[in-house]
Amino acid sequence: MTTSASGALFLPQRTALLKARPSVHRPYY
After folding, report:
1. Max alpha carbon distance in the chain (Å)?
2. What CA–CA distance (Å, rounded) separates 13 from 5?
3. pLDDT in tens, 1-29
4. What are the two backbone dihedrals, phi and then psi, of residue 4, each rounded to the nearest 5 degrees?
């Protein structure tokens, strides 16, 4: 998979995790 494709799937997933657990703030890069 290309980096763009992985990023497109990773970014919304990270956002979903942050919304699901707002109490936990960890920078996932």
Report:
1. 32
2. 13
3. 566 666 666 677 777 776 766 555 566 54
4. -65, -40
